[in-house]
Amino acid sequence: MDFEAMRRGAEAPEVAGKQALNGVAADLAAAFAADPMFDWFSRPDARRDEARGRFFRFILRELVYGVGEIERPPMGGAAAVWMASERLGPTPLVRELMALPTLLALTGWDRFGRLAAMRAAMDRLHPTDRAHDYLFFLGVTPEAQGHGIGSRLLRARTARLDASRRPAYLETATEANVRLYSRHGFEVTAEFHPRPDAPKNWAMWREPQSPL
Fold this sequence. Notes:
The protein is α+β, with helices and mostly antiparallel strands. Helix content is 48%, strand content 18%. The protein has one domain: Aminopeptidase (3-Layer(aba) Sandwich). It has a seven-stranded mixed beta sheet with strand order 1-2-3-4-5-7-6, sandwiched between helices. InterPro entries: Acyl_CoA_acyltransferase, GNAT_dom, Trichothecene_AcTrans.
């Protein structure tokens, strides 16, 4: 894998088109394989990996494409999924029903309540008083991690946010990501557990930055 080419691509990412969605879903499924929250609410059996891939394919096709933006290096291997807060809101019932088989495949019956608790906590904490860009997902495939690719994807977006004087918001479940996002101007606004047995999560907000 050409990490230098991937880094250059992350500095000037492309917006993924419909034909790239399966590849982006595969990259994100690999990137989140060891994520604490996905580990907590995902089914524990041999179908876990396939179900996680199915989940990302559904999310990108049904909830993101045509509404948000999926930025990635042209050669793939990483992706950042952004949604404008103005486009967020209650999911229509018909779409909730469409999503149900995919979500149950991801969690199984025993862990579906965990996913519901996570969604409720995220909805409760998500700011609604100011328009902003929401970082839905940022992931780098395991073999490409540690090469600054995610940081470059993030920097490319935040530079445009600064130019338009627009804030941003995200959640993460790993301390390493808290440190990464802090270096890019995000500040922790809340620490929360969706349920007492859940991993800790951090909510983070970023005000637009002024050039030094």
